[in-house]
Amino acid sequence: MSKGSGNIFFIGLMGSGKTTIGKLLAKHLGKIFYDTDHEIEKRTGVKISVIFELEGEAGFRKRETAVIQDLCQLSNIVMATGGGAVIAEDNRKLLQANGTVIYLHANVNELWHRTHNDKHRPLLQNVDIRVKLAQLYAERNSLYTQTATLIFDTGNQPVTHVLNQIEKSLTA
Questions:
Q1: Which of 114, 146, 158, 161 has the most CB atoms at less than 10 Å from its CB?
Q2: Distinct helix (H) and strand (E) counts, the chain
Q3: Beta strand spans in the chain (E)
Q4: What average pLDDT is seen over the chain?
Q5: What average pLDDT does the segment 93-109 reach?
Q6: Least confident segment among 9-13, 43-47, 116-120
């Protein structure tokens, strides 16, 4: 099912499990794992929240696209993207052209339970988190669905169950 590069890319809203499941899948498959947010922090030497503060979301998205472009040049990787990576059409095209794109879906209530105490998510600061997640879901769900090769629900399921489902689909 995967494209020639052997790359697997995770998309979905914050809290959907992209990093957690991505790391485990990479380990199981013997691939190298990358998280685009961590790569941006590594390259800039500052936290994502600082980039948002200094450059706004537009500046962050520009950096995100550059990282996705670079990582898409690699082979045999697993990459977790930021929740908003699919906003840019260029990112969607890059992901689709360079690997298998997996949308990890979870409902707003599940995402709220996973993220409401997290102080490291710039889009969830100083807002009603449940309302913001519902807004992001409404804005992005169709983009995730259109971009994805495969879709898995991560709500109310053990991580190992989702991981097993993904591995079975990739080898089918």
A1: 114
A2: 7, 5
A3: 8-11, 32-35, 77-80, 100-105, 150-153
A4: 89
A5: 94
A6: 116-120
Q: Please state whether beta strands 150-153 and 77-80 pair in parallel, antiparallel, or not at all (unpaired).
A: unpaired
86-90 long-range contacts (CB < 8 A, ≥24 apart) are 86/11, 86/140, 86/143, 86/144, 86/147, 87/61, 87/140, 87/143, 88/61, 88/64, 90/65
How far, in Å, CA of 15 to CA of 62, rounded? 22
Domains of the chain: 8-159 (3.40.50.300)
- DSSP readout, 104-141? EE--HHHHHHHHTT-TT-GGGTTS-HHHHHHHHHHHHH
Over residues 19-52, the pLDDT tens digits come to 999 999 999 999 999 999 999 999 999 998 899 8
Query: What's the pLDDT at 121?
Result: 63
